[in-house]
Predict the 3D structure of the following.
Amino acid sequence: MKLQLIRNATLKLVYGGCTILIDPYLAPRHSLPSYTGKSPNPLVELPCSIEDILDGVELVIVSHLHSDHFDSVAKARLPKDLPILCQPGDEDTIGAAGFLDITPLDDSVQWQGITITRQQGSHGLGPVRAKMGSVMGLSLEAPGEAQIYWAGDTVLYPPVLDQVAMIRPDVIVTHSCGAVWDSDLIVMDAAQTVELCKAAPLATVIATHMEALDHATTSRADLRTAADAAGIAPLRLLIPGDGDEISLGA
């Protein structure tokens, strides 16, 4: 597998011989409103051109419809005949943007020899969860590839730990910026990411969704400091920069 962090949650994944784009957020820097009043979003530019990002993409996965996961630029620039996987309930909105091949992921699908399975997630706990709405994580399996658990926009809560224990993934992708809404944590922060690393001692954890939005509270440096203090080896917790590529064997 080869994983390229584009920016925020946007990943370009080469897996099982296919190229998958996850949660495309393609807006120019400072072109969207602030979440906190600190700064327009996104905070940084894309690390490469949209043409390069879309080159070779065969499948798009949209985990939920928040604007930092599927924005107006993505809706305009993605070819309308690209197949899209989404969570049930989002297909009508995506179809209204002109997309023609949309599959709600209720449970598990087989696509080009890859098994893609929906996993639970909670975009915060308590009242903020209703405000954030439904989200999903994913697991991916293919012959000869590392098994991936992509947590998505979730905090660390018992179902995530249960899924990790059941799946026993080789690679875990987290959203680790510690984003806050109404003073409530809505994705993992440094402490939760470190806890997840400890819960999956044989997995390589890749922390993404960092340093792109103004409601984030955890930087890459914060996460590395916390991991070092907890004795998490650098090769067990990878914290890529925007545009970085990571290649991992089976």
About this structure: Residues 2-241 form a domain with the Metallo-beta-lactamase; Chain A fold (CATH 3.60.15.10).
